[in-house]
Design a protein that fits this description.
By secondary structure, this protein is mainly alpha-helical. The protein is 71% helix and 0% strand. The protein is built from six helices and no strands. The longest helix has 49 residues. It is flat and about 95 Å long.
Length: 194
């Protein structure tokens, strides 16, 4: 026990020689080692700098890929409205450049007017839908009508008025108020998620 190593011997050609006499190094070798500017700290700094350069280059590569992908998506999105307007109104055709009086400028203006009209209509529809949803919910009135929240709020206010020099004495009232607000939030989320 204790005499054998816990690791198996390496299969490399490394040999360890033990000598009966002390090992002496030449003064040239000792001077060369002492004059060497490289130390453990400089090696670790070099390694750290190398790692940082690799990470920086990898981040730059990823950033370039993401910006390229973003540009591709922007181009796809900018091209998408032209195809959607044609699919929405296949019968609506712009006048041919040769037959229209205004030429290419008139054609571009007509297309722009169609897109603006479609945009206005869709935005107005969306606004109307959101207004309907808000009218149905009437959330603010329910909050004001909740008696438990109002009671907890008034208790906090009264406690703070009584203990204006020591507001930390009102921790029980504040906790009760937080519980009531939490209950109200859960009720609200339950209604919204349905």
């Amino acid at each position: 026990m204790g005499q054998g190593s816990s690791k198996p011997p390496p299969s490399s050609t490394q040999h360890v020689f033990t000598s009966d006499s002390p090992v002496n190094f030449s003064p040239d070798l000792i001077n060369a080692l002492q004059a060497s500017p490289e130390t453990d700290s400089t090696r670790s700094k070099d390694l750290e700098l190398h790692i940082q350069r690799r990470v920086h280059s990898e981040l730059a590569r990823l950033d370039a890929e993401h910006s390229k992908r973003l540009e591709e998506l922007k181009e796809q999105i900018s091209a998408a409205p032209d195809s959607t307007t044609e699919s929405i109104h296949p019968d609506a055709r712009t006048p041919d450049q040769s037959t229209s009086k205004g030429g290419p400028d008139h054609k571009a203006a007509a297309e722009g007017d169609k897109l603006r009209d479609l945009g206005r209509q869709s935005v107005q529809k969306e606004i109307d839908m959101l207004q309907e949803k808000l009218k149905r919910r009437k959330i603010k009135e329910e909050v004001v009508k909740d008696k438990a929240v109002e009671k907890a709020k008034s208790e906090v206010v009264n406690c703070l008025r009584l203990n204006d020099r020591r507001p930390l004495d009102c921790w029980r009232e504040v906790e009760a108020f937080k519980e009531e607000v939490g209950r109200l939030e859960k009720d609200f989320l339950g209604k919204v998620m349905q």
